[in-house]
Design a protein that fits this description.
3 domains, Endonuclease, Chain A, 687 residues, eight-stranded mixed sheet, 22% strand, 26 strands
């Protein structure tokens, strides 16, 4: 791997923080409905928590081991951590200002978020009753003493650090979990005339703190929020005598006692109380102790109540039916006629559920193979697979137990499917399986027919209403026969098969990416048209970036749509003058990976499950495929063209990482997600 100092590279972690700033921009955007802006604060907070649990934790381990990251050889982990925390504090301060301004806007709409000090007298009886009946039974205050161990704090919880002043010389400290994991964080209070009122669970407890600690003859009682973020990396035991499920189950228990990587506290907390807590939490790094506001775990604001007039909430776009599947009794029969490209959430994920349900009862279907990474809590996908097994189909599920934060759920689903007679395969040794494949095999008059699904997103019907993803349904033998090879590889762990059409990490993905870029470089040098349009979540791999710089210098026009991390630096002389990068943050999470290469005028189209990150190219099972169907090619080109024209929600990615909006140069504003919805709606109406 080349050292990043040899060519321009944006630090991965700094780029991620820049992405999260774009999420914060949505909370600041006055054109976004007010309740939606509050929810973007929740998304920002949840993102930052996961960032600390994963990336900061990883850097902490590098600091402890006194080694450098292969990703950033020109920076020490300590330097990276310092920059991360400096940027995080700036974003946190900006976050607090946004929150205050949103509270003011709520008040202008006659919606009041009150606390224990501003609670109207009319609500006192309601809050007293709610506390006594609902809240008090869940509270477990723990008194803190200098000689007793400090209780282990949970990473997903928030706590009150309590200071009880008994006399001028006697002070008591306590810690108490705020039960937001079992109770609603927001309590809607009765209306007063036309005014609406909301109080946070935190402030209900603050209002009744005196009753919680009534046995103390205190002069003053204070409560300040504190939370820790724990290292989320699984430390998998390599003892080969353990089953994979036992290993992960054991490691999940370890995660609960993982070391803290960040401690956030109310900046108003008295120094003596903070010093006491820090002295008891020596494992927390001094540069990851971050002052914050009165409230933490803002991720709960993703579920802020729907109150007020209709215009305060985002207008839900009802998923459309695919024009080729309207009023059709058999999806397989339609795939017999042509490839079908489904784009969520514009088009309904129900089509995929219906496909599995059809396969479950079709007497000619003999087997269903699928790989699962994340599924919904009450998964209709899994239910359809269980139904297929009960109908005598040979059902094989490759389930990825190392799907971060879904390990426990995937273990439970595995056990359930095994109990129902489904053959379950736990991934591939040493490689996380991240592909999005289904293979349905049909036997008709001794003839074997295969149908494949190759996609960019997980088989998760809840996420499919939020994540923008693309699925290809096909019976093209060039693709289905190679999807069969992938499942054989996962089943038997055989030596890698040869893939002529599919792009399969880690076997041929890097080689194919380079080959596509080399073709464009060759054509550009020969004076032929040369361009590429690539849409990904993340672009990080330094070798691919170096190759893209070579393409830019050769004259290849490169247009990139990167939602999240982008380590490539566009617009740098002698490196990336022909590269433009935009990022789109809007109501739907842009998750599809699509690409178009000029190929000398004979355009090549692809979709893939893989981002251009080293892990996705070299250390995971990922599958991408060419799009051969002309109609599907046109849809992909139209989608990318619409997104490149976005001048409302698109931001430029550049060296300064200032997230400048791509402002309209024409009178017409283009918000690509709305335009795409109308594009698919028009297709449906014209069918």
């Amino acid at each position: 791997m080349p050292k990043s100092k040899n060519f321009p590279i944006i630090n991965r972690d700094q780029s991620w923080l820049s992405f999260n700033e774009r999420v914060l921009q949505e909370a600041e955007d006055l054109s976004v409905p007010l309740i939606e802006r509050i929810r973007f604060l929740g998304i920002f907070s949840n993102n930052l928590d996961e960032f600390y649990r994963i990336r900061v934790a990883a850097n902490n381990r590098l600091v402890e081991a006194k080694i450098k990251s292969l990703e950033h050889e020109n920076q020490s982990p300590k330097e990276i951590l310092t920059r991360i925390n400096k940027t995080s504090i700036k974003l946190q301060n900006r976050f607090e200002n946004v929150y205050k301004s949103l509270l003011n806007e709520l008040e202008n709409e006659q919606i009041f978020v009150v606390n224990e000090k501003t609670l109207p007298q009319e609500h006192v009886d309601f809050v007293n009753d709610y506390f006594d009946q609902i809240v008090r039974p869940t509270l477990v205050p723990i008194m803190l003493h200098s000689k007793t161990p400090f209780p282990k704090l949970k990473g997903k919880s928030i706590y009150f650090a309590v200071k009880l002043t008994v006399s001028d010389k006697i002070e008591e400290y306590a810690i108490m979990e705020i039960p937001s994991l079992v109770l609603p964080r927001f309590i809607i209070l009765p209306n007063i005339e036309h005014k609406k009122y909301i109080i946070l669970l935190d402030d209900v407890i603050r209002f009744k703190l005196d009753s919680v600690f009534a046995i103390f003859n205190f002069k003053k009682i204070e409560a300040y929020t504190v939370k820790v973020t724990l290292d989320a990396e699984l430390d998998i035991d390599q003892d080969i005598s353990q089953s994979i499920i036992d290993k992960i189950s054991k490691s999940l228990k370890t995660r609960k006692s993982a070391l803290p990587v960040r401690l956030v506290y109310d900046s108003e907390m008295p120094k003596d109380l903070l010093d006491f807590i820090l002295a008891k939490n020596k494992s927390t790094k001094s540069d990851s102790i971050i002052p914050g506001g009165r409230y933490h775990n803002f991720k709960d604001f993703i579920d802020f109540p729907n109150v007020g007039r209709v215009g305060l909430k985002v207008e839900k776009l009802k998923p459309l039916k695919h024009p080729d599947l309207v009023n059709k009794t058999s999806i397989l029969a339609e795939v017999d006629k042509k490839d079908i490209l489904i784009n969520y959430p514009y088009q309904t994920f129900t089509h995929l559920i219906d496909l599995l349900r059809e396969a479950a009862i079709d007497p000619k279907v003999t087997s269903i193979k699928i790989n699962l990474y994340r599924v919904a809590k009450n998964s209709k996908v899994v239910n359809a697979l269980i139904n297929a097994a009960k109908n005598g189909k040979n059902v094989t599920v490759v389930i990825e137990l190392f799907a971060r934060f879904d390990e426990q759920a995937n273990i439970q689903w595995s056990n359930k499917m095994i109990d129902e007679g489904i053959k379950v395969i736990f991934g591939h040794p040493g490689l996380k399986v991240h592909s999005k494949l289904i293979l349905i095999t049909k036997k008709d008059k001794n003839k074997i027919i295969r149908y494949a699904h190759i996609g960019t997103g997980n088989f998760h019907e809840i996420n499919a209403a939020i994540y923008a993803d693309t699925s290809l349904l096909t019976k093209d033998k060039r693709l289905t026969n190679e999807v069969y090879k992938v499942f054989q590889l996962l089943k038997n762990n055989i030596e890698q098969p040869v893939f002529k059409h599919l792009t399969v990490s880690p076997f041929n993905a890097r080689r194919k990416i380079y080959a596509l870029l080399d073709t464009e470089i060759k054509n550009a040098k020969a004076g032929k048209p040369a361009y590429m349009i690539v849409k990904l979540n993340n672009l990080v791999d330094p070798l691919v970036i170096k190759k893209m710089y070579q393409a830019s210098n050769a004259g290849v026009k490169i247009q990139l749509i990167i939602r999240g991390i982008c380590s490539l630096v566009p617009g740098i002389k002698n490196y990336s003058e022909n590269i433009e990068v935009i990022s789109i943050i809007d109501s739907f999470l842009e998750h599809s990976r699509l690409m178009v290469f000029c190929n000398g005028g004979k355009e090549l189209y692809f979709l893939t499950s893989a981002d251009w990150m080293t892990r996705n190219i070299d250390r995971r099972i990922e599958v991408g495929c060419p799009i051969y169907d002309k109609k599907s090619q046109k849809i992909i080109k139209d989608m990318l063209t619409i997104q490149l024209a976005d001048n409302t929600k698109a931001r430029f990615i550049n060296k300064s990482q200032n997230n400048t909006y791509k402002l309209p140069t024409a009178k017409v504003k283009v918000r690509s997600q709305i335009k795409l919805y109308n594009y698919f709606k028009q297709q449906l109406e014209n069918s």
